Amino acid sequence: MKFPEAFSLREQVAIITGGGTGIGFAMARAMHEAGAHVVLVGRREAELVVAVKNLGANASHAVHDVTQLDTAPALIERITREVGPVGILVNNAGIHLKKPAVETTSEEFEKVLRTHIHGAHALTRAVVPGMIKRNGGSILFTGSMASLFGIPLVIAYTAAKSAMVGMVRGYATEFSLHGVRVNCIAPGWIETEMSRKALDGDPVRNKKILGRTPMAKLGTPDDIGWAAVYLSSPAARFVTGVTLPVDGGASVGF
After folding, report:
1. Residues in the chain with pLDDT values less than 70
2. For the domain with range 5-190+220-245, which CATH number is right: 3.40.50.720, 3.40.50.2000, 3.20.20.150, 3.40.50.300?
3. Stated pTM of the model
4. What is the domain partition of the chain in residue ranges?
5. pLDDT tens, residue by residue, 159-172
6. Which among 141, 157, 189, 226 is annotated as catalytic?
7. Residue 196 has what pLDDT?
8. Is 157 a catalytic residue?
9. Cα(178)–Cα(233) distance, rounded to whole angstroms?
10. C-alpha to C-alpha distance for 76 and 193, rounded to whole angstroms
11. What is the dihedral of CA 183, 189, 193, 199, to 10 degrees?
């Protein structure tokens, strides 16, 4: 295996949930550049149509709500029929909840878990049998710094992302013998339109984030995208069950 084939995703079909914007779109764009046919999955079709248009050929979309758990098999069947066997699944869709722990209701807690955990598990269950049959596949999860250290006011999100790390290890031990690798990317603080608006209005938090990040800057969505390409590519064929921080050193900084 030689460069650039080691990092090529040519002839792969990659599903990216929450792929219409932000980090999800960045992963889709990088995988598209690496040669994959990317299928952007999300709830808002107009958003997906724009994203696919920006990517051009070899990209498509499918409207799907990951919290509708029973519809996951039909989604995988449809994509397989229309595009081809799915070789890469990126469980990226998620929701956020910023609220004091004692004010977070059971219903709110469950809503976050249903999106991040139950939704991801439903799609994983639906896609893995085909991967096992073909003796190959890559499943990625988008984790968080919240799974690595304590962050206040996001207890439901922290629980979901921490559970995700355990799921990655569990899936990896079950599926890797069959050629299916399972990994997780834990983004640090990434410069998106949403994060920039939040930090521009909160100089104290901005200073705190940069102060604990050894590289002293925010990452870009492309930093996550190319990490996703690596973990899904032949170059990472002996990498499974890991959570890879892409964080400028924030998880080890002091």
Report:
1. 194, 197-198
2. 3.40.50.720
3. 0.95
4. 5-190+220-245
5. 999 999 999 999 99
6. 157
7. 73
8. yes
9. 17
10. 31
11. 160
Distance (Å, whole) CA 245 – CA 224: 10
Amino acid at 210: L
Token pair listed for 110: 């469950």
One-character DSSP codes across 129-167? HHHHHHT-EEEEEE--GGGTS--TTBHHHHHHHHHHHHH
Amino acid at 127: V
Map residue 121 onto helix, strand or coil: helix
> How confident is the model at residue 194, as a pLDDT?
66
H/E element, 81: helix 72-82
Query: Which element (helix H / strand E) includes 39?
Result: strand 37-42
For 144, left (φ over 0), alpha (ψ -120 to 50), or beta? Answer: beta
Residue 61 tokens, joined: 């979309």
Question: Alpha-carbon distance 196 to 200, whole Å?
Answer: 6
